[in-house]
Design brief:
Layout: H1 3-29, E1 47-48, E2 62-68, H2 73-86, E3 93-99, H3 107-118, H4 122-134, H5 143-151, H6 157-164, H7 167-183, E4 190-193, E5 197-199, H8 201-204, H9 207-231
Parallel strand pairs: 2-3
Antiparallel strand pairs: 1-5, 2-4, 4-5
Length: 232
């Protein structure tokens, strides 16, 4: 084997190793589970939000917010974990979703989210919206395409478009954008606990670990509120 051939083989092997490392890295970012997390650390597995962002829940409840975008494949992957977690939601947690508007192209989906909320159709359509984009490959990027899709699921297209263009939805989208920026969120999906902490699959090492961190911090917040109420 001459030197030129040896060098070519060496280069090929290096390229294959690099490709393998990149694939493994991408899987980690996608939420694939690392080793079970037993002792989450601030600054590594979750991050403090400074200053705290005021919550919008009843007294004694801990607010947990999922920040997401319908077009995000990782948000779609997270759904199955999130829905399973919600089935056994502790009484002290008040959960809600919040659409992010980190890019101008995300605005249409945020408007659709709040339009469906005002119409009382959000819970039913939310999973269908994700499936249409990520499983069926539908390009739901504007009001008209979304209205046609929703009509196929029994929603009046004109009523949807009216809600989509309403001042109420406009206000909700702007408020959501403001809060997400206060959270310091720059990617999705992320989960915010009581306006004080944020975490993600990348931080925690997988979706299950992420929810473990959420449960830990939510319980910590609930215990702190209970201790405070006992003092007074």
């Amino acid at each position: 084997m001459n030197m030129l051939t040896s060098r070519a083989i060496f280069t090929t092997i290096n390229a294959l190793l690099l490709t393998t490392l990149l694939v493994l890295s991408a899987h980690a970012e996608d939420g694939h589970q690392h080793a079970n997390l037993t002792n989450p650390q601030e600054g590594q597995h979750y991050h403090r939000i400074t200053p705290d962002v005021p919550t919008e829940v009843e007294e004694g409840k801990v607010e947990v917010v999922e920040v997401f975008w319908y077009g995000c494949p990782h948000c779609f992957d997270f759904e199955v974990h999130l829905e399973s977690w919600k089935e056994n939601l502790p009484e002290h947690i008040s959960f809600k979703r919040m659409p992010a508007v980190l890019n101008r192209s995300w605005v249409a989906h945020a408007r659709a989210f709040y339009a469906l909320e005002t119409m009382g159709e959000l819970d039913r359509i939310h999973p269908l919206f994700f499936e249409a984009i990520h499983t069926q490959g539908r390009r739901l990027r504007d009001k008209e395409s979304m209205a046609r899709f929703l009509f196929q699921h029994g929603i009046d297209a004109e009523k949807f478009k009216s809600a989509y263009d309403s001042m109420y939805v406009e206000t909700k989208v702007k408020r959501s954008d403001q809060i997400v920026r206060q959270y310091g969120v720059s990617s999705v999906p992320q989960v915010v606990i009581n306006g004080k902490y944020r975490t993600s699959a990348s931080d925690a090492g997988g979706y299950d670990n992420l929810l473990h961190v959420v449960n830990m911090l939510a319980e910590q917040e609930a215990n702190a509120m209970n201790a405070s109420s006992e003092i007074y």
